[in-house]
Specification:
This protein has 109 residues and is an alpha+beta fold. Helices cover 25% and strands 33% of the residues. The chain has a six-stranded mixed sheet. Strand 1 and strand 2 form a beta hairpin. The chain is globular, with a radius of gyration of 13 Å.
Amino acid sequence: MIRLVPIQIDGSTALGVEVLLPKTTLLAVTAGEGYIMCGALDVGLLNDRLRDREIVAGRAVGVRTLEQLLDAPLESVTHAAQRLGIVPGMIGREAVALMAKGPSGSGTA
């Protein structure tokens, strides 16, 4: 089962995605320039093998719900995310707000 949930963050609308799989749930929240995701995200792969794509993403571990993902500190982030001011330890909700603004600071998701 897949569930899509609109999420309001600092005046922008992000999209929460929950994918129920056997024995696990994949979680992601996306807005504008990027996304945050549960521990299934391979930040090393994005930084190394897919670096030319400049993917803005962050990973939080130990989360089981979209709300936990938004409230958790990010364990790791891509280099492209760091250029937007997103850093490890930042709360997911704060990172999504920066992603929604993007490099232009427009505030549109």
